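Hello Y.,

Per our agreement to keep a running log of every chain we model this quarter, I'm adding this entry. I've kept the format consistent with earlier entries: sequence first, then predicted structure.
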Amino acid sequence: MAYRYFVFFGVLHGVTSSILTSDHLSKSLTAISRLIRFYEQHVGVMHADGLFPLIIYSGILDKYLLYDIDDPENFCPLESAFITNGYKARLLLSSVLDKISDDYSRSFKPLLANRFTSIHPPTRTLDESYRHKFINISFPDDDIEDEMDTCFHDVFSCKITFKCFKLIKKFPTDSYHLTHQLIYFLLIEMFSCEKEFNNVAKDFSISAHSSLVCSNLVFASRNVYNKSHYYADICGEIFLLCALSGFRDVIDVKAIDYFFKMQNSSGCFSFWEPKEQPTARKLLRDYNMPDNCREHITAVLFALFVVHSYYTLVSVHNECMKIKTPHHFDVNTIIYAICSFLVLLLFYRYILHRRRRLAWLTKSRILKWA
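Predicted structure for the entry above:
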């Protein structure tokens, strides 16, 4: 009879895993809806960093609609919510492109005017040998930041310099530098500059280097992302870029829970307290927004929720069709209650069976002695 219990608990584990998937997907979609409402009010005052999740969302929307799901009736409610917000993000971006006024954001207009297409399916795995290695999660000095921005601008016209190549192949270094190496690789693909890059890089492998970078960064980030908003910002960026680079299991569900709880009532995210303010990275200092919001961390976590939702929806489309509501509380609570009741019922029947067997054995022994 014991095998029945193992079978039951195996099925129960599968059901609860499905509950967890839909729960964290719904949290991501709820966070996205709040962020869209926040952007609708404040997108006009944002800079290039703040607009970046909108081009990612726009590119992901194109990829999602490429799946042979052309009929809206073939979308489950969770998918419909994701697609609707994607169109809103696209409209928000188009509404501000011609109004960008600051020099820094204007320099990134070739990027902002395009839909982000460097989105890889999650087929790559992290190298477990780096699980216990340490890497510095920090920001660099301003000189490196300026140099990296110059390299980004060069990629917009497929200009690949040896100076930039030396920067992007450097390892190990600080986490900010490494994440921007990943951005550089994604931009090379987005602007179709692989030929120009290979002419300079020769035998350098982007795939091998990104594996080295992400394996180090992701394992290090999982230990610190919840230490403060300072770490949430840089670790969120690490999770985002490594997921876009095609590494699966990068976005931990515990991280989604933590970031979801960080969201302000207005829909944005605050940054560090004054005592956490870094002494470098000048581009972040001026970008404060209403409701104690900070542009960079809001943009990073917005894009992270979008990417997490996209990868989850693609992987669970068939199960998603069975979910009737995008609200994670009601449905999951009911399913959890049913599963709990079944477990208790099974346990009660097991105890009852044992008691009856014990009573029968006792009675048999008494009759035997008599």
